[in-house]
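Predict structure. Chain length: 484.
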Amino acid sequence: MTLIKSISGIRGTIGGSTSEGLNPLAIVKFVAGYATFIRNRSQSGANRIVVGRDARISGEMVKSIVVGTLTSMGFDVVDIGMATTPTTELAVVMEKAAGGIILTASHNPKQWNALKLLNEKGEFLNEAEGLEMLELAENEDFTFAGIDALGKVIVDNRYKERHIESVLNLDLVDREAIRAANFRVAIDCVNSVGGIVLPELLYALGVKEIFKLHCNPHGNFSHNPEPLPENLTEISNLMLQAKADVGFVVDPDVDRLAVICENGQFFGEEYTLVAVSDYVLSHTPGNTVSNLSSSRALRDITAKHGGHYEAAAVGEVNVVAKMKETNAVIGGEGNGGIIYPASHYGRDALVGIALFLTHLAKKKMTVSELRATYPNYFISKQKIELPPDIDIDTLLLQIKDKFVGHNVTDIDGIKIDFPDKWVHLRKSNTEPIIRIYAEANTMEDAQNLGLQMIELLGSFKEEGFVVSALNDLRLQGFRFMIES
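Prediction complete.
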């Protein structure tokens, strides 16, 4: 059984002994630590915390413990029920709450759950805040409220509709154009909260024909819940059978969006952000941000529109910080995460769907034709496993020294930008692994660049390296992976 503690939250498997996984005792400790952190640090003056959850089987059990712990710490709880991650983020702001907790393990399998922790802005805690919260929890440096200071629970199931309304009210969402296009749309919601909210959003946008896959939110995920091509064969087949114009797939908490072309092929997870940014920048020129491991295609599109692109360290909180610093009008992550500040500073698949459909309607072309208008890059993912006693930071510094004179970024591992390609090496926070991401104009070049980095690392430290076997060739050749 596994428990992983990070600055943005706590995730783990359900079940096991008191020293394993995301068990009830661990939930109480970390929620109490979070409540203490909010009490100490929040500037909102509010005494309420929003709680939302995805459709995981363990969701109701975990929510009961979280809500009970928060009220025992003296906080009122706004229970918004089953809700997406972006819905919960928006609810924190709309409620003027002191913070929020989202109960979701995102794309992890059904045995996982997690506590994703938000500040009063509905954004994830930054590194310093996360470390402070973890220290409070580990030291059990908290005090429960007395009988007269216990919090109360307020149930509010209206936030799904409020979220949809906020999307419809965005200036760049054109319902009339979408309605006039008469799109036939297929969706795969992997038996979680997307099945509740996506159909309502699409109908509100003017879509009349929706073909649904796995929209019953019972938490028994019908396939691996990460929206990658190898997990999406059903909707690819449905696209052809239903003669749908576009397909949308979300993960269990609906902050990632994958797009399927009318021919059943994968649009490319990197290109969700590229396409939406193209539309946004064509109407509101400005800057963009994505993380270091995202495609160079966003940089190219931004330059085409006269804007400036910046890369942030991997992680939503880092992307958001860089977006604020550069006053970016659109940003996100290459895994299909759209962050649109005109709505809020969080990855939001609902916003992505509305903007993508508007873009498609105005372009008056098929999804595959739209994809062909963007630069075609290929990304490989590889990793090397190391003995636990190896100093990974020193290895990465040796790589940096080897490429003195090149364009090197070291804010998150080491990224080396060449004129026609790039490679990014970063260590895992949870295991002795260096992940190697490379992008080039061909799949073969990207793959070879990653392998060159592995060979170079091996020349620094010969013994103990294990390179995982080839296991995946992504659809359409958009991605090539060597990763177990």
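Summary: The first strand starts at residue 3 and ends at 6.
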